[in-house]
Amino acid sequence: MGLKVLITGGTGSVGRQLSDFLSEQNVEVSILSRSIKNNSKYKTYVWDHKNFLIDKKAFDNCDYIIHLAGAGIADKRWTKSRKKEILDSRVITTNLLYKALSTSNHKVKGIISASAVGFYGQTTTESNFKEEDQPGNDFVATVCKAWEDAVNQFQKLGMRTVNLRIGIVLMKKGGALEKMAQPFYWHVGSPLGNGKQIIPWIHITDLNRIILQTLQSTDMEGPYNCCAPDPVNNSEFSAQIAAVLRKRIWLPKVPSWALRLILGSRSVLLTEGSRVSAEKILQTKYKFTYPQLELALKSLLASKP
Ligand SMILES: NC(=O)c1ccc[n+]([C@@H]2O[C@H](COP(=O)([O-])OP(=O)(O)OC[C@H]3O[C@@H](n4cnc5c(N)ncnc54)[C@H](OP(=O)(O)O)[C@@H]3O)[C@@H](O)[C@H]2O)c1
Predict the structure, then answer these.
(1) What does the pLDDT look like over 54-107, one tens digit per residue?
(2) Residue 135 resides in a domain
(3) Most C-beta atoms within 10 A of its C-beta, which of 13, 69, 122, 245?
(4) What is the largest CA-CA distance in the chain?
(5) 213 C-alpha vs ligand 1 centroid, how far in Å?
(6) pLDDT for position 28
């Protein structure tokens, strides 16, 4: 179809798979990164948000920006400086893109940015969060809100602006599933916390296909929840991993206090969660390849680690 995209964070777990998927669909991919990686298959441009520097050649012939860059939310303890890095790597990078585009000639038509279901807050409630719902007020929600607000500035440039509120992306390598499944391979897997917290998830194939549809459908604009229509709670998720791997759950649930001791305050990412509605994306006529968890897990989990 001849579209050209610039992907920030194109070197990450989602970005690598998205780049290959889009290339296969004849979308020309280039990457905006903090450094040139020698083994990259894609033309790479460099930026440095800490010094507010960007190579504006990155926008040459670019139709859309796909903005995935950001320091891993779950990767390290949430110290004050890590929290600042998580926020700045999303908001300052977005502001840098905005400043660069507002001061140069380009033909960029829009920006499709990652956000997260954490926008609604990391709480376990009866809610089924929809796009029009208010943001939560915890750390991740505050980051997502500030990130989306920064992305929404691009509307002032007349550009199409889409924020994808992504659930946990299930993929073979590099995502949360690898870590979640590991204890089950070792026969020590069990549900976390009280097991009632919902896990909004999406298979990488569906995320890639939703991003392609978003590129192609110029009427898609604003926030979209990106999660499968069949979220399950942590106990059910654990049971399904065990079933797919043909393992038995024999240990009790890992208590929330123990996770907090090991992980610090970011343990809420594992111990809390509510439903997030897929209705809006379904209304775009998007058809999920993996609407149900069992199918998704079977496609991703090998019987050996
Ligand atoms: N994976 C999920 O389950 C999930 C769920 C919801 C939302 N998301 C969001 O989707 C996006 C992509 O996720 P991912 O799992 O692919 O992330 P990832 O593997 O951690 O990759 C993110 C990329 O961002 C860049 N980056 C990392 N730290 C940075 C920093 N301190 N400053 C600036 N750039 C930095 C890196 O690119 P360079 O080294 O090339 O600069 C990195 O490859 C993220 O923003 C994430 O929050 C992911």
Answers:
(1) 999 999 989 999 999 999 999 999 999 999 999 999 999 999 999 999 999 999
(2) yes
(3) 69
(4) 62
(5) 21
(6) 97
Tokens of 27: 């979308």
CA–CA distances in Å: residue 77 to residues 82, 170, 174, 266: 7, 22, 19, 7
Residue 94 lies in a domain: yes
Token pair belonging to 196: 């009632």
Instruction: Quickly tell me which residue has 């209304």 as its tokens.
Output: 283
In a domain, 237, yes or no: no
State how many domains the chain has.
1
Distance from residue 144's CA to the centre of ligand 1 (Å): 13
Separation CA 24–CA 3 (nearest Å): 12
**Do residues 72 and 11 lie in contact, with contact meaning Cβ atoms separated by under 8 Å?**
no
Which of the 8 DSSP states describes residue 105? -
| Of the candidates 15, 37, 155, the residue with the CA atom closest to the CA atom of residue 94 | 155
Residue 106 CB–ligand 1 contact under 6 Å? no
CA distance 229 to 231: 6
Q: Tell whether pTM > 0.90.
A: yes
CB within 8 A of 101, min separation 6: which ones? 59, 108, 154, 157, 159
Distances, alpha carbon 16 to alpha carbons 29, 31, 69, 208, in Å = 11, 10, 12, 11
